[in-house]
Amino acid sequence: MTESTSKAVFISDLHLLSPRSVADMIPAWIQSQYADKQLLVLGGDIFDFRWSRLESPAASLNASEVWLRCLLDDWSGRIVYLPGNHDSHPQFLDLLDQFQTEADNFSWNYDSVRFGNTICLHGDLFDAGSVERLSAYRSRFHDEQPKSALSHGLYDLAVEARIHRLIPWVRHRFGSVCESLVLQLAQTDEDELRSVIFGHTHHRIDGQRVGPFEFHNPGAALKHLLFEPVEFDAPIGSV
């Protein structure tokens, strides 16, 4: 007998708060394009606290809270949040704890979440090297002060020159990233795992295979990059 499934969608790397993000209208867009989905996985770097354009960490945290509350008000299904390296600030994780307590349809996991034979994760496990090193790696992105206008200006120049598009091809090449993730996931004894959905690399991947595993990545909602959420089926009992 075929197992009943829920329709799900995975979104990551919106980098909201950053002036390079093109995702300001995402909540309304999610509701209009994916209203038939029962599960929404927010796969990390939804917010970019390191490169926020706002005047203080407190202002960035408040903006993220408002955004999430609006999404929860509009979304009728379940939401699972997986923080990434740019949105794992300790105060934000406290906020996720608060949402998990308040909202019956919201939960979060620090590193990954499994739905049947599909696993979702942010993907910075590749740069961290192991699950044990993930927290230490992410702590390097917990900047306490906003970036200077000069830093933002230089970043803007790099984006307009399309330099940021080279990073996935140089630092996050498909083969090396996926092989590393397979090795890391094998250590967690993930039996019958077949599909890996991840973000972080800003490189859109649509069902490419490495051995028995199929990989998907939505890309990033940043200027001059490709972005398209990943749709998948999740067994009813796992949602």
Q: What oligomeric state is this?
A: single chain
Q: Give the SSE order as H and E letters.
A: EHEHEHEEEHHHHHEEEE
Tally of contiguous helical segments: 8
Unreliable spans: none
Strand content: 15-25%
Residue share in helices?
Answer: 25-40%
Compute the CA-based radius of gyration: 17 Å
Global mean pLDDT: 84
How would you describe the overall organization of this protein?
The mean pLDDT is 84. The protein is globular and about 55 Å long. It has helices at residues 26-33, 57-74, 90-102, 125-128, 134-139, 149-160, 167-170, 174-186; strands spanning 5-11, 39-42, 78-81, 106-108, 112-115, 118-121, 195-198, 205-210, 213-217, 230-235. It has one domain (5-238): Metallo-dependent phosphatases (Purple Acid Phosphatase, chain A, domain 2, 4-Layer Sandwich). Strands 4-3-2-1-10 form a 5-stranded mixed beta sheet. It has a 5-stranded mixed beta sheet with strand order 5-6-7-9-8, with helices on one face. It is an alpha/beta fold. The two termini are 19 Å apart.
What is the compact description of this entry?
With 239 residues, the chain is an alpha/beta fold.
Write the layout of secondary structure elements.
Blueprint (H helix, E strand, L loop, with lengths): L4 E7 L14 H8 L5 E4 L14 H18 L3 E4 L8 H13 L3 E3 L3 E4 L2 E4 L3 H4 L5 H6 L9 H12 L6 H4 L3 H13 L8 E4 L6 E6 L2 E5 L12 E6 L4
Parallel strand pairs: 1-2, 2-3, 3-4, 6-7, 7-9
Antiparallel strand pairs: 1-10, 5-6, 8-9
